[in-house]
Amino acid sequence: MATTEVVLLESRALRASMSERTEALDKVKALVLLPDGLHVTSRMVAEYFEVPELTIRNLVARHRDELEEAGYTLLKGAELQDFLSLNMSLRRVPGRGLAVFPRRAVLNVGMLLRDSEVARRVRRYLLDSEERRPGSIDAHVEEVATRAAERYCGSVIGTQLAEMRAMIEAQTRVVCAMSVRLADVQQDVVELKRSQRRRRKRQ
Question: Does the pLDDT of residue 21 top 60, yes or no?
Fold first, then answer.
């Protein structure tokens, strides 16, 4: 996986900057829409990216806020009934409602979905197009690299601090033990002097 593709998977800001590039979907593979010409269901998204529908549901659960910004909606009640009246081909609807994705949200899924060859091709198209505009993704690459470096440095510094604390604690225990021993020696010296004085008096 190219470095720039990793950046796209990791950087929400970069994905947002490409959210309008929905032509990438049809450049890679024809996206079949519902009769309203605007939306697709979770099952249709799964079919487009050639993954199980559960994979799409799990991805939505992890990135719901971002996908909702791109237009993802879970329709219920009267809103759902109005939508079904425009899309008569939808016959069976789950009791929890109907999840629908506009093209922007489908593209967003493609920028997040790791284990899909179709999604990789969508990302590759987006990134190849961006590379024609010099400097357009450099800031995002730097942003992700900086975060990675900060995480690494934080981990190293944390490990070093833990080792230093352990060394200090060990040295403290040694010093305490030496202090106790010195106190015992001082007491022995005092007792020895007393014993010597008593002997002198007897003589």
Answer: yes
Q: Which structure tokens are listed for 38? A: 């605007």
Tell me the H-state helices in the chain: 3-10, 12-17, 23-28, 42-49, 53-62, 64-69, 77-86, 103-112, 117-131, 138-202
Instruction: List the domain boundaries for the chain.
Output: 3-136, 153-203
pLDDT in tens, 26-70: 999 999 999 889 999 999 999 999 999 999 999 999 999 999 999
Residues across the chain: 203
Please give the Cα distance from 154 to 162 (Å, whole number).
12
CA distance 108 to 54: 17
